[in-house]
Amino acid sequence: MIKLGTSVLTNNGQGLDRAHMVELVRQCVQLQKAGNRIVLVSSGAVAAGRELLGRSAGNETLAQKQMLAAIGQSQLVHTWQTLFALYNVPVGQLLLTRADLDDRERYLNARDTLMALLKEGAVPIINENDAVATAQIKVGDNDNLSARVAVLADADKLLLLTDQPGLFSADPRTNPDAELIPEIRHIDDSIKALAGGSGTAVGTGGMATKIEAASIARHAGVDVIISAGHGEDVISNCLTQQLGTRFVSLTAPKDTRKRWLLAGPISKAAIYVDDGAAKALRQQGASLLIVGIARFAGEFSRGDLVQVFDSQGCSVGKGVARYHSEELQQLLVNPELSKAQVLGYDNGAMLIHRDDFVSFRD
After folding, report:
1. 269 to each of 60, 95, 143, 296, 321, how far by Cα in Å?
2. What is the pLDDT of residue 361?
3. CA-CA distance, 147 to 37, in Å (whole number)?
4. Beta strands per DSSP E along 106-234
5. 6 in a labelled binding site
6. pLDDT at 199
7. Nearest to 318, CA basis, from 251, 249, 258
8. Which H or E run includes 201?
9. Could you say which residues bind substrate here (predicted)?
10. Residues in the chain with pLDDT values less than 50
């Protein structure tokens, strides 16, 4: 899985850099001939739209950005199609929104299409469907989209190619002593604090979104590499010489439903548990019992996805709630009463069943 940022594909956001794109295509075809399956998550639709209309980047409204994406997306895919055709490699376009990943049936349909394209020897070109996506249904950036699609596709590696060589110990633009971090095995608050803003004004994702993406993908068994998108044989060198910063993958859940939970729905609320519950979830693969919940924040319904944190605020995992937030509140304030006495029915002692929970052992 290769995510190409706007800064990699354009001339500073003013139009597609076709000379560099053909070099990226050459590397992709080379890897494909060596037996690899390649998926591209391609930014650049809005920039391509500006190029066709002769506009410069400005303070566009949502409708204007969607218009630019609608015009530029066809140009972007046509460019990829033309360049891959030089090597007789077909491409296929998939435009996704968060709704496609949240809904399990639509998620599986997208997966079937993706696998069919790969089986045919085609290179899928994936982007968010910006022409119709609103704030409520947007993934928000192609970094997180690429991570979720990497989970969907059972990818081995995810390359996030950008305008920076990787993650540094400090901001290299302001600190001359900043050093590139070659490998990360644990994402904690200190790692997240190293992420600054976007490296340029032409993209929507900065280093923070790339760390978010790395956290999602590595929990699904995907190695993630953040590297600069320019340079000789950048894709090949990332895979063979580990350029940039590598986030080492963790053991992936084998259950397809749990993989969907990693890739799909956005958490509706935060559940905070005591130390005993956190240990049972992390180490024993247990269900989350209501008795282990200290408090929660946010509203959710039965069937919604909720994020679980320990007493220090560290993420434990996420899962599907079996009670509404209002019902949970009543159960927490009346622990001496049975669930049937409080609610009029009993849906079990757990808020999240272990089959509906994915643990973050980060």
Report:
1. 32, 28, 23, 7, 10
2. 66
3. 16
4. 123-128, 157-162, 183-184, 223-228
5. no
6. 45
7. 258
8. none
9. 43, 130, 142
10. 133-139, 197-205
Distance of alpha carbon 128 from alpha carbon 130, whole angstroms: 5
- The reply, when asked if residue 129 is annotated as ligand binding, is no
pLDDT at 203: 43
pLDDT at 138: 44
The pair of three-digit structure tokens given for residue 82, joined into one six-digit string: 């033309």
**Mind listing the domains of the chain with CATH numbers?**
2-258 (3.40.1160.10), 267-359 (2.30.130.10)
- Between helix 142-152 and helix 256-263 the angle, nearest 10°, is 170
How many angstroms separate the CA atoms of 213 and 103, rounded? 20
Q: Which residue has the tokens 């506009």?
A: 55
The per-residue pLDDT for 196 is 60
127 annotated ligand-binding residue? no
Instruction: Determine whether the annotation assigns residue 208 to a binding site.
Output: yes
The DSSP symbol for 54 reads T
Structure tokens at 163: 């305008």
Q: Write out the two tokens for 232.
A: 């000789």
